[in-house]
Amino acid sequence: MEDIEHIEKEMKLIGADGRRLDGRRFDELRPIRIEAGVLRRADGSAYIEWGGNKVLAAVYGPREAHPRHLQDPARALVQCRYNMAPFSVSDRKRPGPDRRSVEISKVISEAFASVVFVEQFPRTSVDIFIEVLQADAGTRCAGLTAASVALADAGVPMRDLVTSCASGKIDGVVCLDLNKDEDNFGDADCPMAIVPRTGDVVLLQMDGHLTYDEFQKAMGLSIDATKRIYEQQRDALRRRYSVTLEDILKESPPAAAPVEPDEPSSPPEEDFGPEGI
Amino acid sequence: MSEEVVSELMRAHVYRLASTGQRVDGRGLDQPRPVTVNRAFVKTAEGSARVKLGNTDVLVGIKMSVGEPYPDTPNTGVLSTSVELIPMASPTFEAGPPRPDAIELARVVDRGVRESKMVNMERLCITPKEKVWILFIDIHVLDYDGNLFDACSYGAVAALSSTIAPAKAQGLGDDFPLPVEHWPVSVTTAKIKDLLLVDPSLDEERMADARLTVTTDENGDIRAMQKGLSGSFTYEEVKRIIETAQRVGRDIRPLLQSS
Amino acid sequence: MQSSGALRPIVIPGEAVGGPGLKPGPGTYSEGGRVFAAQLGIRDEHEGLVSVIPLNGRYIPQRGDAVIGEVVDQGPSHWLVDIHSPYPAPLHATESPWRVEFGDTARYLKVGDVIMCHVLSVDEIKRVQLTMQEREARRLNGGMVIEISPTKVPRVIGKQGSMVSLIMDLTGCRIYVGQNGRIWLDGDDRSAAVAALAIRLIEERAQAVGLTEAVRELIAREQPRGRGPRPS
After folding, report:
1. pTM
2. Which residue has the higher pLDDT, A115 or C86?
């Protein structure tokens, strides 16, 4: 692309071959892996690895909204809590919410409120929890993408999945999906989330410096990428529901109560101890 | 709301099974659930382990930094343990500052590690009175299906044993693995009426009258204990529980040690 | 196991499930003349109505549903019952099968009791009332309760109750299936455990073809040897 050619001279984050420090081209995503239904207690859950990000998302609800005075007689509340584990970043983060995570929680809640059929569940809340276990820039996009899978896994009625991605500018070049170094030393970052079926933008943030033209390039890259990510979200949900019968028999505990032996019983085995590793 | 209450019908069912030596999930009374250990799960931490005890799932990360020692222990590193009972893990957990449950849990895990001298903290002294390593054990509970005491403790032990101190980044020579010298294993037993059940499941824990956590080391010596809930134990029961903890501990220890 | 066989295709929220001429049924919505899935589930089409049978989701009470509830609180003239839904459900003393004096509710039902009851009414803001005046309504004693996803209840019951009858016949257990996903099982410990396992299988494989055979095989495999099913 012409951008790459004209910037090649003085760059650090993009090499002479047009590749970024991690070997990607300007329009390449980091590797993404999504798994649905990974937690037992939550009504729905998903785990995502996105480059160096490891993020869990869980959904509870619709359930009775607490405290009561928050209940809306006409619709469900969609409440997201985004949280980073203390060990998810290089300098330990103090446990508990900070201003950044409160803001991210708010914009993600609002992004989902537009796709969930909230009017079907008056007086309830749909609670979305995002836990960043390992962070490498783009955690809100990874978290939102996983949370969307968790919502569908929970059976929450919704218009569509929501898919998120960021693009930014490094060394003057508009690039897709910045990693941590690129985010730290780059010129701009612009996370967004859309409803893939309709193209509605439900989350949009930007910091740094982009010309209007660069912004449009960035959005173009992100929109294109969300199509690929959307397919991965859908694939994770399909895989979740194709366990085999053998898996179930393996996972289910043996039925309680001993079988009455109709032949002399074999010598007793070690009668306790961990069974797995 | 129903989360806190176990129905009378299920109480009766669990007790009836237990009185014939059985449990709802097919275990024997002194049999823990399967333990799985997944080390080095988090690259941003100096050490980490994801441990599953049945369906209870915890992630422990170890972070290390350099700071000042406490005035009364000028020659030893500092250990700090915290537990977050994040609302993802259970419909009954709420966001907010740690509640007494989480604090007790963190302190019991901390005691097992500290009192067993699992990590030689004196070797984490850099300059007496001035500079020591500070070791943060952060326990993130992801899925709560009973018996967090043992799951968190296993997570902490496995994470510590995989921790590499980032000395180079601090200009303090080469990175080194933590000086691990002992292997504490926590085993929790719940009492339901007159019956003792090792590693209680969620329902068993909710209907338990009393709970006793016993941490033993590789010699079978006792390094920490914590009795919980409003019921009581006879002294005979306490001794039985300790003996079981020694035995179960022997089986679980290799799972925490192997890398 | 062959019989657990093919899975029916799963649709995902936002996926098109029908064009013009089809009416949107449960689990779907229409936009611009087309019908889309609103929930993760299995597509179903019947006489011009397209719907998605959800694979997961909370129980939302409907008038007339038979449900299994647990008493969680009591007042002088009512009990509060957890029916595994987002909404707490009161059971008024006048809807109980007993003549309850004011302030005497604890004599009949206590906190922690499990009951089989019905949804009497649900208003537009989802306030629920329960009743115990239907025939099968009663306090449940003995046995055990398991919980499954309420969306799998129709599969556990089967056509005209065929699936639950099969499990009862093969295991000799008594079984009540609540629309709210709570299932009461009563039988000897082993049979109840086998029945529970069969129900878990149905829950996990609700979208599978050939489920009946899979359930038969599972029960045959898990049943104690040398002991046939008890007559029911």
Report:
1. 0.90
2. A115
pLDDT cut 70: percent of chain C above it = 91
Query: Does domain C66-139 bear CATH number 2.40.50.140?
Result: yes
Instruction: Find all residues with CB under 8 Å of C122, minimum gap 6, and list them.
Output: C61, C62, C63, C128, C129
Q: What is the 3-state secondary structure (H, E, C) of B33-61?
A: CCEEEEECCCCCCCEEEEEEECCEEEEEE
The residue written with tokens 């647990």 in the block is C70
Q: What residues of B are in contact with residue A253 (Cβ under 8 Å)?
A: 25-27
d(CA B62, CA A64): 37
Domain with CATH 3.30.1370.10 in chain C: 144-222
- C10-54: which CATH topology? OB fold (Dihydrolipoamide Acetyltransferase, E2P) (2.40.50)
Chain C closest-CA separation from residue B28 CA (Å): 15
pLDDT in tens, A218-229: 999 999 999 999
Q: Give residues with Cβ within 8 angstroms of C197, minimum separation 6.
A: A252, A255, C218, C222
From CA B196, how far away is CA B200, in angstroms rounded? Answer: 9
Residue of A92, A106, A139 to mutate for B, most B C-beta atoms under 10 A: A92
CA of B207: which chain C residue's CA is closest?
C112
Residue span(s) of chain C under CATH 2.40.50.100 come to 10-54
C-alpha distance from B38 to closest chain C C-alpha (Å):
27
| Cα(A85)–Cα(B142) distance, integer angstroms | 11
Using alpha carbons, select from C21, C130, C144 the residue that is nearest to residue C81. Answer: C130
CA atoms of C164 and C176, how far apart (whole Å): 9
Q: Are B156 and B113 in contact (CB under 8 A)?
A: yes
**HSE-CB of C37 using CA atoms within 13 angstroms:** 25
Q: Which CATH class is domain C144-222?
A: alpha beta
- The residue of chain B nearest to residue A276, with distances taken between CA atoms, is B34
CA of B249, closest CA in chain A: separation in Å? Answer: 9
What span, in angstroms and rounded, lies between the C-alpha atoms of C199 and C177? 10
Which is nearest to B28 in space by CA: A228, A167, A273?
Answer: A273
CB contact at 8 A, B208 and B190: yes
Strands C41-46 and B210-216: unpaired
Residues of B in Cβ contact (< 8 Å) with C112:
5-8, 11
pLDDT on residue B114: 95
To the nearest whole number, what is the mean pLDDT of chain A? 86
Q: Choosing among B1, B9, B207, which should be mutated to test the C contact, i.e. which has the most C CBs within 10 A?
A: B9
Quote the CA–CA distance of C152 and B31 in Å, as a whole number: 32
Decide if B255 and A60 are in contact by the 8 Å CB cutoff. Answer: no
Q: How far apart are the C-alpha atoms of A132 and A82, rounded to whole Å? A: 8
Average pLDDT of the residues in C28-43: 94
